[in-house]
Write a structure and sequence with these properties.
Two copies of one chain form a homodimer.
Chain A: H1 11-29, E1 34-35, H2 37-44, H3 48-55, E2 62-63, E3 67-69, H4 70-81, E4 87-92, H5 96-108, E5 112-119, E6 128-129, E7 132-136, H6 140-146, E8 151-154, H7 158-170, E9 175-178, E10 191-194, H8 197-209
Parallel strand pairs in A: 4-5, 4-8, 5-7, 8-9, 9-10
Antiparallel strand pairs in A: 1-3, 2-3, 6-7
Helix pairs in contact in A: 1-4, 2-3
Chain A binds a DNA duplex through helix 3 and strand 2.
DNA sequence: TAGATTGTTAATCGATTAACAATC
DNA sequence: TAGATTGTTAATCGATTAACAATC
């Protein structure tokens, strides 16, 4: 039960947590009540030892001779990830990708709520996506003051990304989810998560051209 | 010049290559001719030592006392990644995300060509996206026989992803780029690159809720 | 030539795996 | 209780960093 979380957990561990939780969710749907680290190993591809090691960074969630309670562990990991609260999000750049995320985020992820969307394109300003009206990017700063968000999502072109990032930093968002195919500089304390699709595709090309099927990213 | 590439290069190294190349491209645009591992370190955030180590997995591209030729190194890394050829791609699932990728891929990435798109939704079948007509998913297998592709891109819901993956395996694609928020099983030899947006967002939530700005994914 | 910077080996650090005692 | 499986320590493995000789 008790979170240890004394020191810094390595990012490798943290990035495995969502997968654990995803698989536990599927088990819950199937009505599975308990699972051992060995069975989880088969489902995740990680070793049983690593799974036990990972989980014990945060606390002893299992029980000797029994394993882990699926629902309980799912909840624990959710808490660790900070999914026991709501995150308000603003999408900047409302092209296909921005729209995809607007729909996607609300569809798959309760807890993540898109509360505003911004663009510079007059054809997009004013239209409604998933119930959210696209606002003029020039009004973003004042909008964010009135309606603060936790996460800014950058779905613009490479060229605009840094300007957006700067304005999001001023707008007191806590984290930036960056889909623009470039690296951006962010202010002290800002959490940054990049989704570099072009890098991902290039990596795929590497493995294809080298005939090297080392699955799983 | 000469590729070593004797043994298997670690995936950690491979995943850094696209970033090197991306930054070299920007330097080319700026007209920069040469760069040292130290300067590259400042631009990438990796240590100079690591950069030299990484590159020397593939060959000695630098010159003592000089550094690296920007254009030359950019080309070399492109070759290593397998970007000296064309990749034909099929998109399965033509919602916002599929459409975003259809536009994105061709816009940013020469060398990656979307040649066909498939969906089950009658409202989407027949429409044209970026010049490609959306075809009925039920015809995918015969279409792929007539017009083979290298990469299949899964932009469907969780529930359909495995069926799509199976059909892509039969369709002789070489790699799968999976955007569905689930893990899929692929046949022997298939290259799989997952883009788990929900995992990425969960990771972002972790760092926000722990007030831990360990930037860069 | 002297200075700069690579290529490469050796040292360090961290992450993964193995093993097993604790315990349900 | 006996069996199963965790929690945790120790051993191994691999990746990163440091150092420096080679060389442009």
């Amino acid at each position: 039960m008790g979170m240890k979380a004394n020191g810094k957990i390595s990012t490798a561990v943290i990035r495995r947590l969502p997968k654990y939780r995803r698989i536990l969710q599927e088990l819950m749907v199937k009505g599975v009540e308990r699972i051992s680290s060995n069975e989880l190993s088969a489902l995740t591809g990680f070793t049983a030892s690593q799974i036990r090691q990972d989980l014990n960074n945060f606390g002893g969630f299992g029980q000797q001779g029994y394993g882990y309670n699926v629902e309980g562990l799912h909840g624990q990991i959710g808490n660790i990830l900070g999914l026991d609260r709501e995150y308000r999000m603003a999408i900047v750049g409302c092209g296909n990708l921005g729209q995809a995320i607007a729909n996607y985020a609300t569809y798959y992820k309760t807890g993540f709520v898109v509360t505003s969307m911004f663009d510079v394109n007059p054809k997009l300003i004013g239209i409604s996506i998933n119930g959210i009206e696209v606002q003029d990017y020039s009004e973003m700063q004042s909008c964010l003051e009135k309606n603060p968000v936790d996460i800014g999502i950058i779905c613009t072109t490479k060229g605009s990304a840094q300007d957006v990032a700067d304005k999001l930093c001023n707008g007191n968002v806590k984290g930036i989810w960056n889909f623009a195919p470039t690296d951006i500089n962010v202010c002290e304390g800002m959490v940054l998560e990049n989704v570099h699709l072009s890098d991902s595709l290039n990596t795929l090309a590497y493995f294809i051209s080298h005939n090297d099927p080392r699955n799983e990213a």
